[in-house]
Amino acid sequence: MDQVRTYLKVVLKHHFWLLLGVLLLAALWTWYSAQAAMTAKYQESSSRIDSKFSAVENVPHENHPNTSFVEGIKKEQQELSKQILEAWETLYDAQKVHLKWPEAEMGQEFMAFVNQEMASRKTTEFPLNLREIYREHIDEAVPKLYEIVQPRQQMKEAGEKKDSKEIRIEGIVVWDEGKRNELASQFTWNAVPSDRKVRFAQENLWVYEALLNIIKKTNTGAVDPTTAAVKKIDELALGQKAHDTSRSRQGAAQSEPSGEQGEVDEDTKLLNGRYVDPNTGQPLTGGATSTFKELKLIPVYMKLVVDQRKLPDLLVNCANWPLPVEVRQVKLTDLAVDEGAAISRGQSPAAAKASTPGAAGGALGEERGPFDATVEIRGIIYLFNAPDRALLQDSNTGASGAAPSGAAPESQGMMLSE
Which residue from 293, 292, 317, 296 is spatially nearest to 377, judged by alpha carbons? Predict the structure, then answer.
């Protein structure tokens, strides 16, 4: 009994530490039991989830049991392609009447080839003899462009005295003859042009014709520069030249855009910068024509003298023409002189006019009116390719925009005629 009392005294004396050890052991046992239970539950849940994923992965991908869903998606795609094709056809038909090869100048043999292309909607390379015909006769079609806007020019007519002639000025729009000759030089080659040069030249002819018809429509009812909305054409440019005007305005010493390193053939250079990307508006390089199969976008630039009051009409006509011009930038410079403002600055009206570029009059009636200003317009013109259902089918299947067999991609939409 004495020994028991001795042990009890020790226990009572150190009971705190003894109880602490017991509690620690109990806690460790509880943690271990709980951890084992959670591990077992986790493994069970993980195995169940893995089995569900395995079951889904084993479902056949090619012959999915829900065929009604697949057929519904295909039907929607077909309906969407049909709507796109109808809209494409409508826009193309609206342009087609304005995209004609110069039949009177080219002759029957040339037009027979073009009409065959139009019927098949597939482009093939122009034979050498037809390219020679185009080179020899396209310069006969270019002057017809000028007649659209009725440029101011001196006309000689018989006077009262024998052998005397009086000079009379006719026309509406002032357009320097040197500028017209510069435009005509784009259609002149020393050698027989390549197929691409022929097609691009004709494309240029259509675009210039569209721009001049827009100016003509804006000048409806005008009889001379004083009544015209567009009084003078300073510059028309498209493709690479339109980009060049932008770079020159910025004073940037940039080289011609190029998508490839090393030597590039002349025909490929014609493509670099000719078209723009519909998504970014930046020049396409490396021989690309468009990221869209339906159309090509050509950058255009016009520098005109316009009555500011009619500028909205000009911009509306750009948007509504069958070859629509999406205007990206409008810049007004050389505004007409406000005589009252000049006097308030202590400057005589005559001196103010003399210091204004282009304000002086000219032999062809270039005197600036109070509302006239030099307007620079930059934009892109839409040129639709010939509709092709096969291209839409390629889009639905995710195929690249390759041209039909035997066709050059850059030549799509170039077979138009009437």
Answer: 317
**Rounded CA gap, 46 and 146, in Å?**
81
Q: How many CB atoms within 10 Å of residue 249? A: 12
Report whether 413 contacts 385 (CB < 8 A).
yes
**CA-wise closest residue to 367 among 358, 376, 355:** 358
Round to whole Å and give the CA distance between 370 and 211.
25
Is the Cβ–Cβ distance between 366 and 232 less than 8 Å? yes
pTM above 0.90, yes or no: no
Q: What is the pLDDT of residues 8-67, one digit of tens each?
A: 777 787 778 888 888 888 888 888 888 888 888 888 888 989 888 888 777 666 665 577
Q: State residue 139 phi and psi, 5-degree precision.
A: -65, -15
Give the pLDDT confidence score for residue 361 in this predicted structure: 46
What are the pLDDT digits (tens) for 54-82?
887 776 666 655 778 888 888 998 898 88
**How many Å is the Cα radius of gyration of the chain?**
38
How many residues in the chain?
418
Rounded distance between C-alpha atoms, residue 38 and residue 34, angstroms: 6
Please give the backbone phi and psi of residue 303, each rounded to the nearest 5 degrees, phi first. -120, 115
Domain map (residue ranges) of the chain: 75-156+165-256+267-336+371-411
Q: Which long-range contacts (CB under 8 A, 24 or more apart) does 281-285 make?
A: 281/328, 281/380, 283/240, 283/243, 283/257, 284/259, 285/257, 285/258, 285/259, 285/260
Give CA torsion, residues 312, 313, 319, 325, to 10 deg: -80
C-alpha–C-alpha distance, residues 402 and 398, integer Å? 12
Q: How do residues 111-159 score in pLDDT, each as one tens digit?
A: 999 998 888 877 889 999 999 999 999 999 999 999 999 998 876 655 5
Q: Which two tokens stand for residue 33?
A: 């039991």
State the amino acid at position 124 in one-letter form.
Answer: T
- Pair of tokens at residue 81: 């392609």
Element (H, E) at 293: none
Compute the average pLDDT of residues 287-308: 85
